[in-house]
Design brief:
- This protein is of the alpha/beta class.
- It contains six helices and nine strands, in the order αβαβαβαβββαβαββ.
- The strands form two sheets. Strands 5-6-9-7-8 form a five-stranded mixed β-sheet.
- The radius of gyration is 33 Å and the shape is rod-shaped.
């Protein structure tokens, strides 16, 4: 039961977890000012960070274990304030710097350990902690077989029954039924605008468009798209929501030639 009491707090913490970036700035022995190289490293760190995502900044100063405790505490505070000034000079707002704290010296447990000078040099530092807002979720356009309640610009709607006979731009009975259903969905979702894209199969690579036996012209994919456009207008779909275009044989599905005798919708506005 005790675990259950803490579970909501854990879940809440996970939901609001921030991304945390930590950058350490190292100082010379007994110094709290930075040379040009060190200052440039801090500025470079800031420039690489998307400052619009910074929710808060925490600055913690440290020293090595050499010297008196009170002196080191003051030194660590001075180091933290040096970094604060650089951050503000380079565009970080003072109000989001929520912590500036000198934590004094970092003790080393074993004075006879290897690389003692190197360990001490890494303790003469300031840690800058940036708490960043999470990146927005990136949604990518997708492929669907019907109109969805929510679409992104760039979504493709491939209607499995909106297929044509070879060489024809006349709607089949199955295609009309499919468009009747799609028209109902489009009437409910009036915000959608789209391009009607016509396609063909079975032409040689050098001949991108196919011959339409009804019009006796090589404009079959364009005619298929226009046929769907006109049919949807008859079904009360506002023509201002639609455009149409023939793509010839340039976008095969790779499923078989019968599936390339098709019309698709490309969402252009939501």
């Amino acid at each position: 039961m005790r675990l259950l009491k803490f579970l909501p707090l854990l879940i809440c913490g996970l939901l609001y977890a921030q991304e945390e970036v930590v950058h350490s700035v190292y100082f010379e022995f007994d110094k709290f000012n930075l040379d040009e190289i060190q200052a440039n490293e801090v500025v470079g760190f800031i420039k690489k960070t998307d400052t619009t995502r910074i929710e808060s900044v925490q600055i913690y100063g440290y020293t090595d274990d050499i010297g008196k405790e009170d002196y080191n505490l003051k030194l660590s505070n001075n180091r933290a304030n040096t970094i604060r000034e650089i951050l503000i000079e380079n565009g970080i707002k003072n109000k989001i710097i929520i912590t500036i704290e000198g934590k004094g010296r970092i003790l080393i447990e074993d004075d006879f350990s290897e690389n003692l000078p190197e360990k001490r040099s890494k303790n003469r530092r300031v840690d800058v902690v940036l708490n960043l807002e999470p990146l927005p979720k990136i949604e990518l356009a997708g492929f669907y077989t019907s109109i969805q309640k929510k679409h992104l610009i760039g979504d493709h709607i491939y209607l499995e029954k909106l297929l044509f006979e070879r060489g024809s731009s006349i709607l089949t009975f199955e295609a009309r039924k499919e468009l009747d259903y799609i028209a109902q969905l489009l009437l409910k979702n009036k915000a959608l605008s789209f391009e009607i894209q016509g396609h063909v199969c079975c032409t040689p690579p050098y001949q991108k468009e196919a011959f339409d036996r009804e019009t006796r012209k090589r404009n079959l994919s364009q005619n298929r798209a226009e046929t769907v456009y006109k049919y949807l207008i008859l079904k009360k779909i506002d023509k201002e929501r639609m455009t149409y275009k023939g793509y010839g044989n340039t976008v095969p599905l790779g499923k078989g030639t019968e599936y390339d005798r098709r019309v698709e919708f490309l969402i252009t506005k939501t």
